[in-house]
Write a structure and sequence with these properties.
D-Amino Acid Oxidase, Chain A, domain 2; Arc Repressor Mutant, subunit A; eight-stranded mixed β-sheet; five-stranded antiparallel β-sheet
Length: 472
């Protein structure tokens, strides 16, 4: 009998796990995939939103602002990259200036600091590649960018070090209410819990509806993206948004935390909760819409495209809290944009609710710090040479595009919740994320990972399940 079972190892579930690890409690996380960060959390814009878009008084507005405010300290505690570069919402038509003003006023009501309405000249001075049609822009200095993989993995690793158990390849099939607590049926066996946190992303409605008569409905909202090479990374220096519409913030153009340029997403409601394919039409839409706000986009520099699904709940707001007719069952549902930004605050809120519910006491052994994978390139040359002399693996470049060494790949496999797939290595080290997209380094990465896991290369997968890369 666990005190708490968290279903879902995305950024919200792992944020809750990390915050709850502050207390004396038996906690486990169940994840249907082979690693953390395999759903919505791995396929998004990597944007830390300022908080001017959400309707005042909603959970989205509150969590966005609090999450944004906590991001800086959290990134230092857990050693993941985050930069406050600021963002611009571009207005290219005079008849839309009133909407821009309304967005500014909404941001002020939400408590966003430093918002400014810029003139055409001020906007172009700040971002020379903005459309020549620009009339004005909303500048939000508290906006930023973050690596969603690094953030999710950091939260999970810190939770694990503080005693939270993680069970992967464990899909929940059924949840039954007991006299005291819940029985959670999975493909690998049964788990029992006093309380459950439902952080299952686009499947959160399915799990909620197993125990509650008040039904949830999650609509998968697909967004396609194009990622451009680092040669294009300085085309803009801040996140550039269009004026928001009914389906969200529209197509954006943004530098990434690692120096690339990201363009997207589209926004299409679909039925298939696994529908993460990309389409010719979607990618053409991205280029056309992004080009209305940013000129001379170097779309020939695209190195890959991908899509992700946002968990849109019919109410349009986050659903966080205890189900009224299922005591002990806590939802963390409908976590679409700005879910990544909100995650630090969502984790705190869930931990507060569960602490009160179970009367949890603080742990005296909690350690809130974590160090990420050592990047030799960040060291002064003398220290780097000393590192290589002591461990030659840090002198062997495996991924030429991203300059990733064998030492970093070994570290990724040996860490708490270490990588056990090629995508797991990629998300932890960036090996394979460069211009050639694993064309050069994949065989060597497979060789190293197989050696670390002590398995045959024919057993390795790209992303778990049946995604094996080699035949026996």
């Amino acid at each position: 009998m666990y005190d708490i079972v968290i279903i879902g190892a995305g950024v919200s579930g792992c944020a809750a796990a990390r915050e709850l690890s502050r207390y004396q409690a038996d906690i486990c996380v169940l994840e249907k995939e082979e690693d953390v960060c395999c759903g919505t959390s791995k396929a998004n814009s990597g944007i830390v939103h300022a908080g001017y878009d959400a309707k005042p008084g909603t959970l989205k507005a509150k969590m966005n602002l609090l999450g944004n405010e906590r991001m800086g300290l959290l990134s230092k505690e857990l050693d993941f990259p985050f930069v406050r570069k600021g963002s611009l919402v571009v207005c290219t038509a005079k008849e839309e200036l009133l909407r821009l003003q309304e967005l500014y006023e909404r941001g002020v009501k939400n408590g966003v600091k430093g918002l400014q309405i810029l003139s055409r000249e001020e906007t172009l001075e700040m971002e020379p590649n903005i459309s020549a049609d620009v009339q004005s822009a909303l500048f939000a200095p508290t906006g930023g960018i973050v690596c969603p993989f690094s953030m999710n993995i950091a939260l999970a690793e810190n939770a694990a070090v503080n005693g939270v158990e993680f069970h992967f390849n464990t899909e929940v099939r059924d949840i039954q209410r007991l006299e005291k607590g819940f029985r959670i049926e999975t493909e690998t066996g049964s788990y029992y819990a006093k309380c459950v946190i439902n952080a299952a992303g686009i499947y959160a409605d399915k799990l909620h509806n197993m125990v509650s008569g008040r039904k949830l409905s999650i609509i998968p909202r697909k967004g396609e993206y194009c990622l451009l090479d680092k040669n294009a990374g300085k085309h803009v220096s801040r996140t550039i948004f269009a004026l928001p519409g009914a389906y969200g913030k529209g197509v954006l153009v943004t530098p990434t935390i690692h120096g690339n340029l990201l363009v997207g997403p589209t926004s299409v409601d679909i039925e298939n909760k696994e529908g993460v394919d990309t389409t010719k039409e979607g990618l053409q839409e991205i280029a056309a819409k992004a080009g209305k706000n940013v000129e001379n986009l170097p779309m020939r520099e695209v190195i890959t495209s991908f899509s992700g699904l946002r968990a849109h709940e019919e109410s349009g707001d986050f659903v966080i809290g205890e189900a009224e007719d299922a005591p002990g069952f806590f939802d963390c549902a409908g976590i679409e944009s700005p879910g990544l930004t909100s995650a630090p605050a969502v984790g705190v809120l869930l931990a507060e609710l569960l602490q009160k519910k179970l009367n949890l006491e603080e742990s005296t052994s909690y350690n809130g710090s974590r160090k990420g994978i050592l990047d030799p390139r960040t060291l002064p040359i003398k220290e780097r040479n000393k590192l290589i002399a002591g461990n030659p693996a840090y002198g062997r470049i495996i991924c030429r595009c991203e300059s990733i060494t064998e030492g970093e790949i070994i570290d990724a496999a040996r860490r708490p919740l270490g990588a056990c797939s090629i995508d797991g290595i990629k998300r932890r080290t960036r090996a394979g994320m460069g211009r050639c997209q694993s064309g050069f380094c994949l065989p060597k990465v497979m060789e190293i990972l197989a050696r670390e896991l002590q398995v045959s290369q024919t057993e390795l997968t790209k992303c778990g399940g049946n995604s094996k890369l080699l035949k026996p």
